[in-house]
Design goal:
The chain is mainly α. Helices cover 57% and strands 2% of the residues. The chain is built from 24 helices and 6 strands. A hairpin with a 2-residue loop joins strand 4 (385-386) and strand 5.
Length: 488
């Protein structure tokens, strides 16, 4: 594989040190100012995530040799180690597949030039007001020689990219509305037209960054100290500690202080495991008819529309974010308020395995294979544990989570009993899933902590990987089906 060639004019060598992950005490800051005459930034947050204690993430990367090797490869390729990768390091097998795919999409030879790729990433992340990803790719866009005028707003970008705004909007919020007519307008736009290969590349980038925005908000990812919004020059408070404390063995741990509801939590895991056992026994005893399975799907799909994503008011995007996309009022919530029905998309008629995979691989070689491996990795990943319990078959639970997300997007699997979803996913979990998948910018720490309270943070990150990949595949299925219908 060869790297795509980037303009070298604006390329800079970025660097990251382990100390970027920690704070700097007032004493060290005074010494640095005295010796070097510079102001030293401090991270605004405590670690890579607002939701997960810093010590847990750092312990994973320290003890796992494979994770260390993955980090080294990522740093060599990107000249940085972002907080998304640090949080994903709970699951190094998945992280390796994720980084390989993302690296190929952004840096290796492909239909789109490098600056177009990063601008499309900005457009996609901006749809969900994900300033973290927007800022990362603004920097990358400039480093590969992107035109700074484009960053003033989508209306300053080339007409070809502006035309992508419509399918960016639809895929992000209501992918079931995408039609072959949308595809035709892009492919037959005279001098601003897209080729099929370019469009496949763009669609994969859009869906990847829509879903990555979900993961970013779902895990409470914090900006790195080197990024906008990730640092301050104000002195630290007395309660915080510095790298020198850690070097001297004086570091203190961040304790998870949410002790509320311990009595409620007691037995949560055991109850879920018991329900899984009962459902398995019911499967063995009797099988529902196709008519009953279809009815249960429609019931679950309707109920999913009634799940409220958040009690908060509408999130109004800032000008810095909203300038990168059009129609800021367009969103998933609008659709549910009007009481419309999502049309049913039968996976048996158009599936990733039988249709989407081959179309992507034909028009953008190797990417179909990489996406398939990433989907399979997230779906099949298991350590056969649930909280403190070992030797547990979690396949039923993983399938329920994946299929619930696809159900929200109208995608039905004929061989799945959707009655299992209500048995396995409680209301607080469903609220979290729907918020993170459909309106990720509304995800809060309280939502993250309200579901599966006896489970480990690594297990919740695994859930977020499932949500991210299921969402991406759902969006891709609608986009690829529309492209296939245009082609035929």
């Amino acid at each position: 594989m060869r790297h795509a060639i980037a303009s070298s004019e604006n390329v800079e060598n970025n660097s990251i040190a382990v100390t970027d992950l920690f704070k700097i005490c007032a004493h060290c800051e005074r010494l640095a100012k005295k010796d070097l005459g510079i102001r030293i930034p401090r991270p605004l947050g405590s670690g890579p995530s607002r939701f997960i204690p810093e010590k847990e993430i750092l312990q994973v990367s320290k003890v796992d040799a494979r994770t260390q090797a993955i980090f080294e490869d990522a740093f060599a390729a990107l000249h940085r180690l972002d907080n998304i990768s640090l949080v994903m390091s709970f699951h190094p097998q998945y992280l390796e597949s994720f980084l390989r795919t993302q690296h190929y999409l952004l840096q290796m030879d492909g239909p789109l030039p490098l600056h177009y790729r990063h601008y499309i990433c900005i457009m996609a992340a901006a749809r969900h007001q994900c300033s973290y990803l927007v800022n990362l790719h603004v920097n990358d866009f400039l480093q590969v020689g992107g035109n700074t005028k484009w960053l003033n707003g989508l209306n300053e970008a080339p007409q070809k990219l502006q035309q992508l705004g419509e399918i960016n909007k639809i895929l992000a919020h209501r992918p079931w509305l995408l039609t072959k007519e949308h595809i035709e307008r892009l492919l037959k736009a005279e001098e601003h037209s897209w080729s099929l290969a370019e469009l496949i590349h763009a669609v994969v980038l859009l869906t990847h960054y829509h879903s990555l925005s979900s993961f970013t908000f779902g895990c409470g990812i914090m900006p790195e100290i080197t990024c906008d919004g990730g640092h301050t020059f104000r002195p630290p408070s007395v309660s915080q500690y510095c790298v020198c404390d850690i070097a001297n063995g004086n570091g203190h741990a961040n304790h998870h202080d949410d002790l509320l509801g311990d009595q409620e939590m007691c037995g949560e895991v055991e109850e879920l495991m018991e329900r899984m056992k009962q459902l398995q026994e019911c499967r063995d005893d009797e099988e529902a008819s196709q008519e009953e399975m279809a009815t249960r799907f429609e019931r679950e799909k309707t109920e999913s529309m009634l799940v409220v994503t958040s009690e908060d008011e509408e999130c109004v995007p800032s000008r810095d974010i909203s300038r990168h996309f059009e129609d800021t009022s367009y969103g998933y919530q609008d659709f549910s308020r009007r009481g419309e029905q999502v049309p049913t998309f039968r996976a048996q008629d158009y599936s990733w395995e039988d249709h989407g995979f081959s179309l992507v691989n034909r028009l953008y070689p190797d990417v179909g294979q990489m996406l398939d491996e990433k989907f399979q990795m997230a779906y099949n990943l298991t350590y056969n544990t649930m909280a403190t319990h070992k030797d547990v078959d979690t396949s039923m639970l993983r399938r329920a989570i994946w299929n619930y997300i696809h159900c929200m997007f109208g995608i039905r699997y004929d061989d799945y009993d959707y009655g299992e979803i209500n048995q396995l996913l409680d209301r607080s979990f469903k609220i979290y899933i729907k918020t993170m998948v459909c309106s990720p910018e509304k995800t809060t720490k309280r939502m993250y902590e309200s579901f599966w309270r006896q489970f480990q943070h690594s297990e919740k990150v695994h859930v977020n990987l499932l949500l991210m990949e299921a969402r991406m595949q759902a969006e891709l299925l609608y986009a690829l089906r529309a492209i296939t219908r245009y082609m035929t």
